[in-house]
Specification:
CATH class of the largest domain: Alpha Beta
Shape: globular
Helix content: 25-40%
Radius of gyration: 21 Å
Bound molecules: zinc ion
Structural class: alpha/beta
Largest sheet: 8 strands, mixed
CATH topology of the largest domain: TIM Barrel
C-alpha cells in the first residue's frame, strides 16, 4: 500500500462535516490528511511519484465508507451460509467499510471467547468487522450476559437479535447495565404471543394466500415497551429493522420527550410490500415481514425527518437448504450488503429521499447510534472511503454475488448507482470490474 493516496475531482459528500463539493482527498498513513476543493487546489499531485497513488474520481460520488450496524455473518457455526471473510467481501463490494455482526451464531456470542474468535477472523477480513454481544446467555432470554466482559473483549453493542427479549424484567436490567457500560441495546421488537405461527404480514394478502399473519401490533407493542423501559432506566435503546407506521410514530414521540432511542430501517422494508409474497417466493419471507404501502410511506417519512436515523441491511444469509422449501418452513431474511446502496438510491431517483440524507443514514448516523468512531472523512479520521458511480446501471446476477448465500429477491433486477471502489484505512479493498 502506498503511504500516500489522493482521490481527485470527485463530488465529496460527507454530511458529518457538511461537505458537498468537488474535492481532492489526501490520505497519509491510512488517515485523511486534508481535503481541498479541486477548483482551488494548487498542490502539485506529483503524478507517478513513488509511493503516491492517484485515484481519479472525476464524475463520481465520494462518501465516507458505508457503515452497516446490522449483519449476520454466521461464523462460528454456520459457515456454509457465510463466514466473517465472505461476509466482509460482500460488504466491501457493497461499499461498506465497517459492519457489525449479530450474536446469533453457534455458539452464541455471549462470552469473551466467541467475541475474540470473531475478532480473530476479522483481522484478515476486507472490512472492519465489529461484534455485537448477546443480551442473554444463549439468546434464551433467561440470564443476562456479562456485558462488561463482552465490552472488554470488543463487543460494541448488545442484542438478542433474531429473538425478542420476551422478559420485560430482563430487558429492564439489560438497559440498566448497558447504561453502565455506555453501550446501546439493540431491540428486535416482536411480541411472540402476537406473532405465534405467523409467517407474513397480517392483512388482505395473507388472507388471500391463506397464510398465518403477523400483525403490526406485534412490533408496535414491543417497541412501546422497550421505549418505556429506556425511559425508566436512562439506557440507550436502538430499534432494529422498524417496519411499521406505528413504530415510527412511537419512536418519534419518544425522541421528542428526550428518550435515548434511535432506529434503523432495512432497504427491503422501504422497497417491497407484502404483495411480493404472492407466488410464495421464500425470498420475500423476513422478520419483521414485508408490510404495506402505508407503512413504507411512514418509514420513508421517518427517514426524511430523522426519526429513523439509520439504514441497516439485516444481511441474513441462508442456503438453499433453508430457503428452497415450503413458504411456512423457510428461514427468515435475505442477503443485503451488495444491493443496499443501489436499492436506497432508487428512492433518491424517485425524489422520495435526498441523497444527503441517504448518505447520512448509511454513514455518520449509524456510527453515532452505536457510538463508533467511523462514518466521517473529517481530517484525521481513518481513510474509509467509498467511490460510487451514480450513473452506472447494473443487474443483480447470482453468479456475481460475493456473499456465500444467494437468497435475495433482487436477482435479475437492474439497479442504478454502483459502488466503484471501496477503501479501508487508505487501502483499496474492492474495485468494480
Ligand atoms: Zn432482527
Amino acid at each position: 500500500m502506498a503511504n500516500r493516496v489522493v482521490i481527485t475531482n470527485g463530488r465529496v459528500l460527507d454530511p458529518s462535516i457538511g461537505l458537498d463539493e468537488v474535492s481532492n482527498i489526501y490520505i497519509m498513513g491510512g488517515r485523511v490528511a486534508s481535503i481541498k476543493a479541486s477548483a482551488s487546489d494548487d498542490s502539485p499531485l506529483e503524478e507517478g511519484a513513488p509511493g503516491l497513488d492517484v485515484i481519479d474520481a472525476t464524475g463520481k460520488l465520494v462518501v465516507p465508507g458505508l457503515v452497516d450496524i446490522h449483519t449476520h455473518l454466521r461464523e462460528p457455526g454456520y459457515e456454509y451460509k457465510e463466514t466473517v471473510s465472505t461476509g466482509a467481501g460482500a460488504a466491501a463490494a457493497g461499499g461498506f467499510t465497517t459492519i457489525l455482526c449479530m450474536a446469533n451464531t453457534l455458539p452464541v456470542n455471549d462470552n469473551q471467547s466467541v467475541t475474540r474468535y470473531i475478532l480473530k477472523q476479522a483481522e484478515s477480513a476486507a472490512v472492519r468487522v465489529l461484534p455485537i454481544g448477546a443480551v442473554s446467555l444463549g439468546l434464551k432470554g433467561k440470564t443476562i450476559t456479562e456485558m462488561g466482559e463482552l465490552k472488554e473483549a470488543g463487543c460494541v453493542a448488545f442484542s438478542d437479535d433474531g429473538m425478542p427479549v420476551k422478559d420485560a424484567g430482563l430487558m429492564r436490567r439489560a438497559l440498566e447495565y448497558s447504561a453502565g457500560v455506555g453501550k446501546a441495546i439493540i431491540t428486535h421488537a416482536e411480541e411472540p404471543e402476537l406473532v405465534r405461527d405467523g409467517v407474513m404480514n397480517e392483512g388482505p394478502v395473507s388472507t388471500r394466500l391463506g397464510l398465518p399473519g403477523i400483525p403490526n401490533v406485534a412490533e408496535d407493542s414491543m417497541i412501546a415497551r422497550d421505549i418505556q423501559l429506556a425511559e425508566l432506566t436512562g439506557g440507550r435503546l436502538h430499534v432494529a429493522h422498524v417496519s411499521t407506521r406505528g413504530g415510527v410514530d412511537l419512536i418519534r414521540a419518544a425522541q421528542a420527550r428526550g428518550v435515548k432511542v434511535t432506529a434503523e430501517v432495512a432497504p427491503h422494508h422501504i422497497t417491497l410490500t407484502d404483495s411480493r409474497v404472492i407466488g410464495y417466493d421464500t425470498n420475500a419471507k423476513m422478520n419483521p415481514p414485508l408490510r404495506r404501502d402505508g407503512d413504507i410511506e411512514a418509514l420513508i417519512e421517518g427517514l426524511n425527518d430523522g426519526t429513523i436515523g439509520s439504514i441497516a441491511t439485516d444481511h441474513a444469509p441462508h442456503s438453499v437448504i433453508e430457503k428452497d422449501v415450503e413458504f411456512a418452513c423457510a428461514a427468515n431474511g435475505i442477503i443485503g450488503l451488495e444491493t443496499a446502496f443501489s436499492l436506497v438510491y432508487g428512492l433518491v431517483l424517485d425524489g422520495r429521499l435526498s441523497l444527503e440524507r441517504m448518505v447520512e443514514a448509511m454513514t455518520i448516523s449509524p456510527a453515532k447510534a452505536i457510538g463508533l468512531e467511523c462514518g466521517s472523512i473529517r481530517v484525521g479520521a481513518a481513510a474509509d472511503i467509498t467511490i460510487i458511480d451514480l450513473g452506472a446501471e447494473w443487474t443483480v446476477e447470482a453468479d456475481s454475488i460475493r456473499s456465500r448465500s444467494k437468497n435475495t429477491p433482487y436477482i435479475g433486477v437492474t439497479m442504478k448507482g454502483r459502488v466503484q471502489q471501496t477503501i479501508v484505512g487508505g487501502k483499496t479493498v474492492f474495485t468494480a470490474s
